[in-house]
Amino acid sequence: MKRLLILVGLVLCLGALPASAQAQFALEDLEVTFEDEAGNPILEAGTHPFQMSTNLKVATVSTPEGDVPAGELRNLDVSQIEGFVGSQNAAATCEPADFNNRVKGYPQCPVESAVGYVAAEAEFEVIPPAERGAYVHAPVYNLDPPPGVAAELGFVILNVPITIDVRVSPEPPHNLIAELSNVSQAALLYSSKVILWGNPADPAHDPLRGDCIGESLVSTPEPVSLGECPVPPGTPEVAFLTLPRACSGEPLATVFSAVSWAGEEAGGTALTHNATEAAGIEGCEELEFEPAISAQPSTASGSEPSGLDFGVEVEDEGLTDPEGRASSDIRKVVAALPEGMTLNPAAANGLGACSEAQYEEEALQWSPAAGCPQSSKVGTVEVQSPLLKETLQGDVFVAAQDQNPFGSTFALYMVIREPRYGVLVKQAGEIQPDPVSGQLVSVFEEIPQLPFSNLTLHLREGPRAPLASPRNCGPHTATATFTPWSGTADVTETATFQITSGPGGGPCIQGAGPFTPAISGGSADSQAGAFSPFFMRITRGDGEQEITRFDTVLPPGLVGKIAGLGRCTEAEIAAAKAKSGRSELAAPSCPASSRIGSVQAGAGVGPFPVYVQGQLYLAGPYAGAPLSVVVVTPAVTGPFDLGTVVTREALNLNPTTAEVEVSGVGPDGLVPRILEGVPVQLRDLRISIDRPGFTLNPTGCGSKALRATLFSSAGGAASPQAHYQATGCGALGYKPKLTLKLLGATKRGKFPRVQATLVPRAGDANTASTVVTLPPSQQIENAHINNPCTRVQFNAGACPPASVLGTARAYSPLLDQPLEGPVYFRSNGGERELPDIVADLHGQFRIILVGFIDSRKGRIRTTFAGVPDAPVSRFELKLSGGKKGLLVNNRNICAKKQKAKLAMVAHNGRPYTVNQVVKTSCKKGKGAKKGKKGKRR
Fold first, then answer.
1. Which pLDDT value is given to residue 121?
2. Dihedral angle at the C-alpha atoms of 714, 715, 716, 721, nearest 10 degrees?
């Protein structure tokens, strides 16, 4: 993309200044003119001048011998106007051997390598004093440039070779710079005029081409022709010089900078001008501007890691046609990839970033110790130009987040270098992902005015490619809007590619696609009744609908010990949300006392998702649940920090089964689909509840299930399950202690209070069912069953006071406080003959115990059939007596010992049956005496 240019004015001078001359070294009468064949100045944008004339003088000082230059020119740099370019392909080159092989003072360069001439007014020591001060002329040749130089021009004056190196400035605006170094001191330069031709092969230049220009001393800068020197037949006419294609309205400056052999510095500027005054480039509205684009991902399969070849093509015949006009260059491009083609989070695996300082260190010669690190390289760039003989190559790097010229999350650096020609161009571009859809828009501004025919940006392919291909088959269209330097209207172009299969070459994804996530899980130690870390994993395939929420039900009996745990407060949760990911990693917001586990989330398409780790914390009430689990995940991967993701799941126990229910309801319950414009593409979620002494295994070893309900971005739902089973249940004992009391009234027809206390033995299996058959002395008083609570009333929390039979209280080593609440007589909708007895326990959670009442051989029997598999250290049940009493004595209970039958079964299947003596309020000895009398009868 670089053009060589031809510089303008130079010259040499040297010869010592007389000691008496005291004047400052300076340049005067600086002028650069672009001329038509008649010698008139032209400033039409994109045209090829007949010739370019560069003039300069060295300031003089008066001496007794006459005026002499005030200094000896050593080095001269001429910085060309922005947008002025030249072509390497417009003329043949002269090899160094031919340039240095001179016959009669002329280099033996091919005539077709001549590109102009020079006129120098100087005093040469080899010239007799009487002839000094005249002009000497010489042809200017296009030389084969040495390494590191874009183009080299050379001429020989009185056997003194002089070369001008043309370089492309490595700094914006990347204009051409002509450099003349170490000018011979064999001459004392007064002035110089350098003429370069816009079309070197034009027959109009035959009289002054090569050896046809007379070198003899003349009194004017106009050369003398020695004849006709045409180029060989068939030599193409190619434009050598091209004027800028931008019209700012202001004159452009050519900047001269000189250093004398004495070390003095001098400089000045020459403004573009017309015949009468300084003026800017004009006529930009007439320039054509027809860029085109191409876009092709590295895969034709949907929802896969993808590279990309994005090309910009420019047809510009006028750039090389001497009779034509070049098209406008591209000043800005805004390129939008098709919606659905997004950044791939998996690309962050092992990815580095290039800081602004490293970007600035990028040099012409690549060095592993300086510049952008190779870990930040994500692609290459290739540039072809009609002005250059070779294709330019470059690299594409990921810019450091926020620390880039745009202060943005995502940006790219293109570094194009060609050491052979000394070309180094650096271009930064901002990447703007849409925060809702993830569609990628790239913006590159202030692109240098260096014409090119083709630019291809290649982003790497492979499993960690930076992009994800669109998921659905069919055409997908990229769009680019180009802004020209000419100031004319923007141009929008499109390019379409096809996705022809689903992931891995499978069937095309139809509509929203499938949604078949899978779940697995288990305890690290499956021993029944043991504390053990618990692991759960949710996976989703490429191309499937994205997971936006999940609800989980742990296997029955798998519970957590929250007693003594801290809580992550609302303020701490809010603080986590506001932090960057790295800040959260450095100083977690939630206290360690509330941590219960960790999470690893794998994101991105392809076989190697990128994983980020978060922490699970116990928190307070949320979305109607008494507790919640807060997942705090610093979204830090590779060089990117996308903040701290905080999700929250309501934590509850099923009131009937005590199964742990975790639900992603509420405002924070959704799994984020997109962060900073990057679709998360959650593929793998690994949850580890690993706090020591927290997760307790069931005491039953029957086959169970870990259940989940997952919801998708397209409204789909799936309910996968995973098998779960504890082991070693037979090693658990079972011998609970139950105490029953009939308190208060003892006479027939009276209503005693009932008190039952169950104290399980520590380390035993948990109770699964309990059947209590009361003594024959007890029966239900039908007259007191006058206002049972209906199920509707119960569910609404509006049971009538008359339905309250008593209270219950349960203590568990897993909870900080006991669960307690009323015991109701509740109707069952006719499913059983008698209403149920229901204990509605509240506290940190709600548990509902339902007892079915029936009669067995004339005795009242109560069956609690579905007792949750959860440890209870003590359970108390108290039923009111008197007018609220449910039971009535059908005899004097002091007449004999009252015995109840207790039949219990543990969750591991062990039974425990005993005839239990029921304690009463009878006075000591009274019951035995009556019992004997009764026996005698």
1. 86
2. 120
Of 206-215, 514-523, 723-732, 921-930, least confident by mean pLDDT is 921-930
Asked which of 31-40, 177-186, 751-760 is least confident by mean pLDDT, the reply is 177-186
Q: Give Cα separations from 488 to 404, 448, 455, 491, 570 (angstroms).
A: 30, 17, 22, 9, 56
For residues 804-809, average pLDDT: 96
518-729 and 732-936: same fold?
yes
- State how far the alpha carbon of 326 is from the alpha carbons of 51, 79, 250, 281, 629, in Å: 17, 22, 20, 14, 66
**Alpha carbons 477 and 102: distance in angstroms, whole number:** 61
Asked if 253 contacts 270 with a C-beta cutoff of 8 angstroms, the reply is yes
User: Where along the chain do its domains lie?
Assistant: 27-271, 291-503, 518-729, 732-936
DSSP state for residue 895 in the 8-state scheme: S
Q: How confident is the model at residue 215, as a pLDDT?
A: 74
User: pLDDT tens-digit profile of 597-647?
Assistant: 999 999 999 999 999 999 999 999 999 999 999 999 999 999 999 999 999
> How far is 751 from 742, CA to CA, in rounded Å?
9
DSSP letter at 764? S
Tell me the C-alpha to C-alpha distance, in Å, between residue 131 and each of 216, 219, 317, 518: 11, 10, 49, 98
Quote the CA–CA distance of 245 and 7 in Å, as a whole number: 18
- Among the four given CATH numbers 2.60.40, 2.40.128, 3.30.1490, 3.30.450, the one describing domain 732-936: 2.60.40
* 66-94 mean pLDDT: 94
Q: pTM of the entire structure?
A: 0.88
- CATH match for 518-729 among 3.90.1690, 3.40.50, 3.10.20, 2.60.40: 2.60.40
Alpha helices in 723-830, H assignment, sequence order = 791-796
**Amino acid (1-letter code) at residue 279:** A
Amino acid letter at 280? G
Cα(221)–Cα(29) distance, rounded to whole angstroms?
15
Q: Is the pLDDT of residue 547 over 90?
A: yes
Assess whether pLDDT exceeds 70 at residue 376.
yes
pLDDT recorded at residue 133: 61
Q: Which two tokens stand for residue 84?
A: 């002025």
pLDDT at 131: 54
> Please, what is the Cα angle at 304 between 512 and 336, to 5 degrees?
80
* Mean pLDDT to the nearest integer, 301-309: 97
At residue 128, the pLDDT reads 54
